[in-house]
Specification:
The protein is α+β, with helices and mostly antiparallel strands and about 325 residues long. The protein folds into two domains: about 1-215, outer membrane lipoprotein receptor (LolB), chain A (Clam), CATH 2.50.20; about 220-320, MucB/RseB, C-terminal domain (Phosphorylase Kinase, domain 1, 2-Layer Sandwich). The chain is built from three helices and 21 strands. The protein has helices at about 1-40, 195-200, 310-315, and strands at about 40-50, 55-65, 65-75, 80-85, 90-95, 95-100, 125-135, 135-145, 155-160, 165-170, 175-190, 215, 220, 225-230, 235-245, 255-260, 265-270, 280-285, 290-295, 300-305, 320. The strands form three sheets. The chain has a twelve-stranded mixed β-sheet. Strand 8 and strand 9 form a beta hairpin. The termini are far apart.
């Protein structure tokens, strides 16, 4: 009996070590992918799917010396184009090139937050699921299973050679795909088109046929608002707190952003101006859920890549703690 107990203890220790090694290896893949997304030259076409909706976009990414350039263009629907040069972001919409706040438009593909990856073990169980093909390339499949019911499962396909993220899916509690990004065509390295860099680099963004320089939009001043959320899921840390203008709003809005490395939650606080849209409600799009509610004199909105009950829990815990 004692021998059986001893053997069981040894086996348990072995299993725990294997799981720990598996998590470490999976995180190594994500760190490589986060680095490759910035350092790899590539161009391709990817799709974004949520519910019954599909969007197609093209992307060109070039890293030269100490500079990073990226052009993202929609291929269906209204023409939209986003150009990034290091920390600067421009959006070309309705024949106007507008300089955006660098925090906007971050939901492109592929994109990971390298500074957040080390904390993922606290919130997710990482597993490697073998190698699959995506857009003609071999990819290591990694599954991040949450340790609670307050976030979604994430599944990623990472190119085995370059480390580039080729596909990413968000899975619900019932293992349904809430949304996913995936390359359908991809060229890694080789002759990547760089002509657009000369036409749009840094200060003037010339070559678009613009008679005037781009409109600079400063949208977001760092603040300490005094607002807090007491019931955030474990592992979510604040990355930004700003006051910003928003389309359709009469006054600046406070925005607080939290992330656990794979998902983000944003809290918006504004004065309740009693407009028609200032009512309680829950809505969703793919993996993104939104809940807004009038509390006292304020309209509070929580938007997150987390299940509906999580955004409700977070909003109900928001309170003013004083500056």
């Amino acid at each position: 009996m004692r021998l059986s107990i001893a053997l069981f203890g040894i086996l348990l220790a072995v299993v725990e070590n294997v799981h720990a090694e598996d998590r470490s290896v999976s995180l190594d893949w994500l760190e490589i992918a986060a680095f490759a997304g910035h350092q790899t030259n590539y161009s391709g076409i990817f799709i974004y799917q949520y519910d019954n909706h599909v969007e197609t976009s093209s992307i060109i990414h070039v890293s030269e010396a100490d500079s990073e350039f990226e052009k993202l263009e929609s291929l269906d629907g209204p023409k939209r184009e986003i150009i990034r040069h290091d920390g600067q972001v421009w959006s070309y919409t309705n024949h106007k090139m507008v300089q955006m706040d660098s925090q906007q438009g971050r939901g492109r593909f592929p994109f990971l937050l390298p500074e957040q990856l080390s904390a993922l073990n606290a919130s997710y169980q990482a597993k490697q699921l073998g190698v699959e093909r995506v857009a003609g390339y071999d990819a290591q499949v990694i599954l991040f299973q949450p340790k609670d019911n307050l976030r979604y499962t994430h599944k990623m396909w990472v190119h085995t050679d370059s480390g580039l993220l080729l596909k990413a899916a968000v899975l619900t509690e019932k293992n349904h795909v809430a949304e996913q990004y995936a390359f359908t065509q991809l060229q890694i390295g080789g002759q990547i088109d760089r002509s657009w860099i000369r036409l749009s680099a840094s200060a003037g963004l010339q070559g678009k046929g613009l008679s005037q320089p781009p409109i600079a939009v400063k949208n977001g001043e760092p603040i300490n608002s005094g607002w807090v959320a007491d019931m955030l899921p474990t592992g979510f840390n604040k990355t930004m707190e700003i006051q910003r203008t928003m389309r359709g709003k009469h006054a600046p809005v406070t925005q607080i952003v939290y992330t656990d490395g794979l998902s983000a939650i944003s809290i918006f606080i504004e004065a309740n101006d009693r407009d028609e849209d200032d009512v309680d409600g829950l809505s969703s799009r793919g993996a993104l859920n939104l809940f807004h509610k009038v509390k006292d004199k304020y309209l509070i909105t929580v938007v997150g890549e987390v299940p509906p009950h999580t955004v409700i829990q977070v909003l109900d815990s928001v309170r003013y703690n004083g500056k």
